[in-house]
Design a protein that fits this description.
This protein has 278 residues and is mainly alpha-helical. It contains 11 helices and 2 strands. Helices cover 72% and strands 4% of the residues. The longest helix is centred in the N-terminal third of the chain and has 26 residues, at 38-63. The protein starts with a helix and ends with a helix. 50% of the residues are buried.
């Protein structure tokens, strides 16, 4: 189980930095190396997401990076989308959707690399000079955090609230239809559409993922897909990795985090396209 611990620690570290959970690393490793079936590997992947969220989210909330109100607001959209995905899974052509969204992810990855320095626009923001949209004001979708690299308080507000909510419904829909994690879509909705600082996006995504995974894992538990010794090792490794990532992340420049996230996007997009074509 030493190998599982080490790989899980890496998964937790990467997942906490990018807000995507550890499933992208843990699931392929367990299915290929340890020959677990996909249901058992997916269950362990959910455990890794819960552990990542538990480890990283607490640290990010303490640091003021997680915006709880935005997270709960968008979580509602994810649940709506997930229910729709489950209902429509027998009717919509999942393979075609997989190819289309894989191409969209690839486009977004290139866009993220191009705009890797976009967080600089927040450097001169202050509470006095921010204008709030109606729903941003009503729902309280704004906040601030202290950036340790620039040594300044960064104030932000959510933009395009409707489109961000719609993106999260679509993310939940695709998650239910294609059996993929929604961490990537959460970060895209928060960063690309709602224009939040990338560190706030990843921290809030970490918080949201744990809620989603906790609801899903009960199904695997009822089916007997939990391999307890493996899941225990995954949880321990991921927890250590995610806590380490949460300590390191405030000291990493956002542009480097965006480049790393874009690389994960490119990998995921090719996997979705391959899944749709073959």
């Amino acid at each position: 189980m030493i190998e599982v611990l080490l790989v899980s620690a890496i998964a937790g570290f990467v997942g906490s930095l990018l807000g995507i959970g550890g499933g992208l690393i843990v699931i392929p490793f367990l299915s290929i190396v340890f020959k677990l079936n996909m249901h058992q590997a997916a269950a362990a992947g959910l455990v890794s997401v819960i552990a990542t969220s538990s480890g990283a989210a607490s640290a990010y909330v303490k640091d003021g990076l997680t915006h709880l109100r935005i997270g709960m607001f968008l979580q509602l959209a994810t649940v709506i989308g997930g229910v729709l995905g489950a209902i429509l899974s027998g009717f919509l052509p999942a393979k075609i959707l997989s190819v289309i969204f894989g191409i969209l992810l690839l486009y977004n990855s290139l866009l993220m690399i191009k705009n890797r320095n976009s967080d600089e626009k927040y450097k001169d923001c202050s509470e006095e000079n921010l204008s709030y949209a109606k729903w941003t004001q009503i729902l309280g979708l704004y906040g601030s955090y202290y950036d340790r690299i620039s040594n300044r308080e960064i104030t932000y507000r959510a933009q395009n609230t409707f489109w961000g909510f719609l993106m999260m419904i679509f993310a939940g829909l695709l998650s239910g239809l294609l059996g993929i994690g929604s961490g990537i879509f959460k970060v895209l909705a928060l960063d690309t559409i709602m224009k939040l600082p990338f560190k706030v996006s990843t921290a809030t995504s970490n918080f949201m993922m744990g809620v989603t995974a906790l609801a899903s894992i009960s199904i695997y538990l009822a089916r007997g897909d939990i391999v307890y010794d493996t899941c225990g090792a995954v949880a321990a490794g991921v927890l250590v990795g995610s806590l380490t990532g949460a300590k390191v992340m405030p000291y990493i420049k956002s542009k480097y985090l965006k480049i790393a996230f874009a690389i994960v996007l490119i990998y995921t997009s090719f996997e979705m396209i391959k899944k749709g074509l073959f």
